[in-house]
Specification:
With about 270 residues, this protein is of the alpha/beta class. It is built from 9 helices and 9 strands. The strands form 2 sheets. The chain has a 6-stranded mixed sheet with strand order 3-2-1-4-5-6, with helices on both faces. Strands 7-8-9 form a 3-stranded antiparallel sheet, sandwiched between helices. A hairpin with a 2-residue loop joins strand 2 and strand 3. Helix 3 packs parallel to helix 4 and helix 5 crosses helix 6. The relative contact order is 0.16.
């Protein structure tokens, strides 16, 4: 019997089910990978916003990591929300302690409101200790601006200028998500930039007007992770993940979830 592809998500829990651990596990399942999880924080959250956050202790994060890695043959992992500097240290150490073929880091650090969610010490730990271990990082434009301590780009040319500094942080590849630029400019394309370590690629998909985009970033990074767990080459994993999230957004309005910003449709191909 061939081995089952196993993907791990290390992230926060979204009680509303649209983002975080819940979105990651749905995406893994939709794309043919078995999902396991390490929870870094609990949130009281729905489509209207976040009402509360309860951080998991670094010691218990490590206990979860030891538990899954000691038993499961995990080939790819993604990292989402890590709100504490000590938890970033814990995850970075585990990434060195356990054999892991692929590590995708989604640097969740900026709220939809524009508020920076991480303390500067945590951002510095992310830059120095975790990103250099990553196969791929997947920042959106506000997150890239925080990582590079620079203004948010207002044009495609400014996005392109961010790629080399992001690569200099030490990850093997960068997927810079340009959704914020597309929505602000009225562009009819959602444009992302992918640098595989050798070549810069521009990835486009149709822009979809919908308010139901909760969990988009989590879903894209976990889609790449699921496909890497299935041994897709990185370029193919990124392209297929981009296609998947475009479809999940395009079908989001088929769902009726809550009264605020609803989730994308993770199972649009099967429901």
């Amino acid at each position: 019997m061939s081995s089952t592809p196993i993907a791990l998500t290390i992230a926060g829990s979204d009680s509303g089910g649209g983002a975080g651990i819940q979105a990651d596990l749905k995406t893994f399942s939709a794309l043919g990978a078995y999902g396991c999880s390490v929870i870094t924080a609990l949130t009281a959250q729905n489509t209207l916003g976040v009402q509360g956050i309860f951080d998991v202790s670094p010691a218990f994060v490590r206990e979860q990591l030891d538990s899954v890695f000691s038993d499961l043959n995990i080939s790819a992992a993604k990292v989402g929300m890590l709100s504490q500097p000590e938890v970033i240290d814990t995850v970075a150490r585990a990434a060195s302690d356990y054999p892991l073929k692929y590590l995708v880091v989604d640097p969740v650090m900026v709220a939809t409101s524009g508020d920076v969610l991480l303390q500067e010490a945590a951002i510095d730990n992310l830059r120095r200790k975790l990103i250099p271990k990553a196969t791929l990082i997947t920042p959106n434009l506000p997150e890239a601006a925080v990582l590079l301590n620079c203004p948010r780009p207002e044009s495609l040319e400014a996005m392109i200028a961010m790629i080399d500094p992001l690569m200099d942080l030490g990850a093997s590849a960068v997927l810079l998500k340009g959704g914020h630029l597309s929505s602000d400019s009225g562009n009819n394309k959602a444009v992302d930039l992918f640098h595989d370590g050798k070549t810069l690629h521009k990835l486009e998909s149709p822009w979809v007007e919908t308010r139901n985009t909760h969990g988009t970033g989590c879903t894209l990074s976990s889609a790449v992770t699921a496909l890497l767990a299935r041994d897709y080459p990185l370029m193919d994993a990124v392209r297929s993940a981009k296609e998947y999230i475009a479809g999940a957004i395009a079908h989001a309005d088929n769902l009726s979830i809550g009264s605020g910003h609803g989730p994308v449709h993770h199972f649009y191909r099967t429901w």
